[in-house]
Amino acid sequence: MVIKLYNTQTRQKEDFQSLETGTVKMYCCGVTVYDYCHLGHARSYIVWDTVRRYLEYAGYQVNYIQNFTDIDDKILNRAKLEGTTMEIVSEKYIQAYFEDIRRLNIKDADNYPRVTEHIPQIIQLIQELEKQGVAYSVDGDVYYSVNQFPEYGKLSGRQQEQLQAGAGGRVSLSDPEAMKKKDPSDFALWKAAKLGEPAWESPWGNGRPGWHIECSAMVKSLLGNTIDIHSGGGDLIFPHHENEIAQSEAATHQPLSRYWMHNGMVRVSGEKMSKSLGNFTTIRGLLDTPLDPMVVRLFVLQAHYRKPLDFTDEAIASAENSWNTIKEALLFNHEYGEKLGFDLQKNLIDQDAIERFKTSMDDDINTPEGLAVVFELAKELKRDRNILVHGGTPETSPETLQKYWQTLVELATVLGLEAQPEKSQALGLSDAEIEAFVQQRLEAKKAKNYGESDRIRDHLKQLGITLIDQPGNQTIWHR
Ligand SMILES: Nc1ncnc2c1ncn2[C@@H]1O[C@H](COP(=O)(O)OP(=O)(O)OP(=O)(O)O)[C@@H](O)[C@H]1O
Ligand SMILES: [Zn+2]
């Protein structure tokens, strides 16, 4: 079967064919690192991780690149607010990104390019755009001349006249940047240095790159002129991805990406979850409740990736219920495999279930349907587990149970759903006992007995419990 993917650019599902047989070049727009990631970001990266995992399952070798935007007005504002530097702010949130995202079992990218490490490539690309006659400089700024790229608007479907009308209404004579542009819909490729802000030397004087050029330059330098899949949230279609196309394609005269894929937004009361609106829940805030990170993964995958997803307490509670069913089934071998004489030398697979799962996923990564197959297997195992829990003999043969279990593990892994036996529970440590240890450690810290406080932390670590210290002598923990 061939995989079909919805391509935003052609507005239809298309058969997926990679440029080079057996390999996929994939680029996903990464976060601007000025704050902790929220559930909207979690959705985006869970979705693209799942697409990547499915392509790998289908036999492709995927080269997955995701950038960090580590220079931006938002980062500079945060640095000013915290009385620190842009580097310190971005480093802090890059580390936080890794902590949060790895808990969601999102695989590491093959490369995480940062804008500040690609300034020469960015400058080179802007020079190429000048040479091609699509960029012009004014007083140390460089702008892209949208009128010079006839295909502008092909991704978002916006017409040039519409763009001008839209942008025209926003031009203000007091906006010095707008005054420099030849056309209101032109956008900045390079910005002249402002007092006290980081800047790099360039042919146009000291300055820093605009936002859109970074992805064009990093794609080109790490993956080449044309890639297979470019992905990101639907809010990036315009202007970010439209501008990436304009920049890259004017410079190389080749398509930037064969497939453009976009995830729908996580919404709160009908509005996009976003930092600027202040209606967000951070990943770490949610996981420290404490909630199994796999619940978040399941919450995301239960919806089709292109549809909006409403975040509510009820939706999370329902995903938690569903996860418990899958988790118990994933741990079936751990609990009963030995007793039932599972022979793991054998790979017993339910071919029919695999085929149904693939048919769903081949249809534009239909994870809700793929999950339905996972649930069927989990429910089969649950029925016999209930009998085993009460000391009875299962109705299904051990061979069949092993087949269900092995198939379940295979499919759940493709979706990034993995269950760990709870070490602390295995060792009989209850929540109250963990709290008591946390309290003891706090006392030790107050008494400046750091040897003892470290010992307690390491002891809990060995039991699979991580402590996170917070301001005001608070410590939160998670398994
Ligand atoms: N609510 C959301 N739902 C789904 N994806 C989102 C959401 N918010 C951001 N994203 C995606 O996360 C990725 C990283 O986003 P970025 O760092 O640019 O954040 P952002 O859009 O500026 O977030 P915010 O608006 O909260 O500041 C992008 O692909 C973006 O589309
Ligand atoms: Zn980008």
UniProtKB/TrEMBL annotation:
Instruction: Give the first-level EC class, as a single word.
Output: ligase
User: Where can this protein be found?
Assistant: Cytoplasm
Please report, in chain numbering, the residue ranges of the motif 'HIGH' region.
31-41
UniProt: Zn(2+) binding residues: 29, 215, 240, 244
Task: List, separated by semicolons, the cofactors it needs.
Answer: Zn(2+)
Q: Where does ATP bind?
A: 275
Which organism is the protein's source?
Planktothrix tepida PCC 9214
- Gene Ontology MF terms in the entry: ATP binding; cysteine-tRNA ligase activity; zinc ion binding
SMART domains in the record: DALR_2
Q: What is this protein called?
A: Cysteine--tRNA ligase
An example Gene Ontology biological process: cysteinyl-tRNA aminoacylation
Entries under SUPFAM superfamilies matching the protein: Anticodon-binding domain of a subclass of class I aminoacyl-tRNA synthetases, Nucleotidylyl transferase
Q: Does the keyword Ligase apply?
A: yes
